[in-house]
Specification:
It is a single chain. This protein is α+β, with helices and mostly antiparallel strands and 634 residues long. It is built from 28 helices and 18 strands. Strand 4 and strand 5 form a beta hairpin. The chain is globular.
Length: 634
């Protein structure tokens, strides 16, 4: 795991000092070594910078930028099957000077060209400069585990692992994309491929960017997407056969993530995904796995008891950390720096604390993210499967009639229910679902805090809805099911732009490499073809995964409600964070900034403090944006 940064500057206004500055901004991603290379060639400056976190081949032979013939590379990530690829290359006559996976990428690119990515099992974002062909290839892994930002404007191409590096280049134009602001306020993140700044983008997962240095032609090409798996026929296989084969693929993916020359640990929450990961890895191992759990007992967020029960049963070397509410609150001020694009997932706070504590013991930690998106674990799937079918059975004219009546009656006038948590928000979403109870509309409604009308009222400028994966129509009608649609969308939206971004920034803040075994592309390619009822069966979410876990851990140790990393947002905003809310959302701040309409913010702010707790997430998103703005724009 590392940080990469660089530029292609056609105006030749960059320098070695500039390259060092933008690379050094990523020091937390790789404190072990720093490398820089400038190429001045035929009217263009090319800079490649690297911050190294040494994981595989700790010697100097792993230092980057790395050269092989006419090829130069900077690379962030891991190719877990690099030894297998290396053996194939040796048979083809290649010779290696070191033992790193970076060197294997270079040789593989020379041998097979860009199609070499099809051989890689791993997480990666890399840039290869071919001095002879005068091309730049920027490549991002299939699921988007590793981040990759780029900027292309006025003769300057920038790339980096994190957006903050761009601020150190004197030609970077810091101009806010207001369409992206609207998207953030809806989803709590800026969806790929968009960015909070104009002229800046995120490279889509499963894509590569090719820049012809002489013609300046920039092409973006897809080499993989999740629909390639969902658009295949379902497997004709018994459940027991499917369970056996699924565990076999999981074991392969999990074992690959143990490849390392430094200590490795596992995040263990006590839930099914992390329990599955730990159980399969600990089985047949003589040495004890190091497992890590975080709790915030002050706020009722404490899975340590469950995690310890699982750890004791499996026999791991378990470490429990406790974070006080005060310590959690103190981390909030650091969020705008590490999440250098507005980011609204509150669980970033306990995730950062867990990574901070874990980094004292190991350099690599395995996280069980992705299990929900691959094996159907989210409550929203259950919600849509149950209520979506029920709503669709109601005649359209009847649904429209109820919706029209609800438009005439404010949620404030509904007896008893008006005081229920989040009732006003659910009331508005239900009206939308009555009009259109399709899986597509239900998924979009559940996934956002503001609808189009509310966004229009909130922002001071007219905005356009960004094209996102929520509107994708790539799922073939031949293989469509509401569950397949929801899982494919989540894989490309919530997993990509929320979960993976959260864990990457939280771990890298403390120079800890986080690995995601469940996001091995072979797992989703297999699981997507399993019959839906093997994943969601008679109201049981993650059915096949749970049956695998029960082979290793008694059911009574596992059967409990899903907890997650949820913080008491409404309580914090109305007590400990009240002064921050009043400051950042003050009339003076909002009016002078000019991004949001003052009456709309006043309505949210005053409504929240008057008791409308359903506004909590909207207030949190506003607070996170304002804190980001102060850090990066003021």
């Amino acid at each position: 795991m590392c940080g990469i940064a660089g530029f292609i500057d056609y105006k030749q206004g960059s320098s070695q000092e500039t390259l060092i500055k933008i690379t050094k901004e990523l020091h937390h991603r790789g404190p072990d070594a720093s490398g820089h290379q400038i190429f001045d060639s035929a009217g263009v400056q090319i800079g490649m910078g690297h911050q190294r976190l040494a994981i595989i081949d700790l010697s100097d032979s792993g230092i980057q930028p790395m050269q092989f013939g006419d090829l130069w590379i900077v690379f962030n990530g891991e190719i877990y099957n690099y030894q297998n690829i290396k053996e194939e290359l040796l048979l083809l006559g290649h010779h290696f000077t070191g033992h790193s996976d970076t060197e294997v990428i270079l040789h593989a690119f020379q041998q097979w060209g860009i199609s070499c990515v099809d051989k890689f099992i791993g997480m990666f974002a890399f840039v290869i400069y071919d001095a002879k062909a005068r091309t730049i290839h920027c490549v991002r892994d299939r699921a988007g585990i590793k981040p990759f930002f780029y900027y292309w404007h006025d003769g300057l191409f920038l790339f980096a692992s994190e957006l903050k590096a761009f601020h150190k280049h004197p030609q970077f134009k810091k101009e806010i994309n207001f369409d992206a602001v609207a998207a953030f306020m809806q989803h709590g993140h800026v969806p790929t491929p968009h960015c909070i700044f104009n002229y800046a983008y995120k490279l889509r997962p499963g894509h590569y960017l090719k820049l012809n240095i002489d013609s300046r032609a920039l092409d973006i090409v897809k080499y993989w997407d999740v629909y390639s798996a969902y658009n295949k026929p379902k497997l004709d296989i018994s459940f027991e056969e499917a369970k056996t084969e699924t565990e076999k693929i999981l074991k392969s993916a999990f074992e690959y993530r143990m490849v390392s020359d430094v200590p490795v640990g596992v995040f263990l929450s006590g839930g099914y995904d992390s329990a599955c990961l730990t159980a399969i890895l600990q089985k047949d191992r003589n040495e004890k796995l190091k497992t890590f759990t975080i709790g915030v007992p002050d706020i009722g967020l404490n899975e340590s008891e469950y995690a310890k029960s699982v750890a004791d049963h499996l026999g791991t070397e378990h470490h429990e950390y406790s974070c006080t509410q005060k310590e959690a609150l103190e981390l909030i001020s650091e969020l705008p720096y590490y999440y250098d694009e507005p980011f609204g997932d509150q669980s970033a706070i306990p995730t950062m604390f867990l990574c901070k504590m874990t980094s004292d013991q190991v350099t690599v930690a395995l996280s069980a993210d992705g299990g929900d998106e691959v094996f159907a674990g989210y409550t929203r799937y259950e919600y849509i499967m149950k209520y979506g079918n029920a709503l669709n059975r109601i005649p359209g004219f009847a649904r429209k009639g109820v919706s029209d009546i609800m438009n005439l009656i404010s949620a404030d006038y509904i007896p008893f229910m008006k005081n229920k948590y989040n009732f006003h928000d659910r009331y508005e979403k239900f009206k939308s679902l009555l009009k259109d109870p399709s899986a597509e509309n239900m998924m979009l409604s559940i996934s956002r805090q503001f609808d189009e009308a509310q966004i229009s009222a909130l922002l001071n400028t007219n905005v356009n809805a960004l094209e996102t994966y929520y509107t994708s129509d790539e799922l073939s009608k031949n293989f469509y099911s509401p569950l397949a649609y929801m899982m494919a969308v989540d894989y490309q939206t919530f997993l990509l732009d929320d979960v993976l971004q959260k864990v990457d920034r939280a771990s890298m803040a403390f120079s800890l490499e986080s690995r995601e075994p469940f996001i091995d592309h072979r797992i989703i390619e297999w699981a997507a073809r399993l019959p839906d009822n093997y994943k969601y069966s008679n109201g049981v979410k993650k059915y096949i995964l749970k049956e695998i876990v029960y082979k290793h851990i008694p059911k009574e140790l596992m059967d409990r409600p899903k907890m997650g990393f949820q913080i008491p947002t409404a309580n914090w905003l109305s007590t400990d964070l009240k002064n921050q809310v009043l400051y950042y959302l003050s009339d003076d701040n909002i009016a002078s900034q000019g991004i949001f309409r003052l009456p709309a913010v006043q309505k949210l702010r005053e409504g929240f403090f008057s008791g409308k707790k359903e506004f909590a997430h909207k207030i949190w998103y506003l607070l996170m944006f304002q804190m980001w703005y102060e850090k990066w724009m003021d």
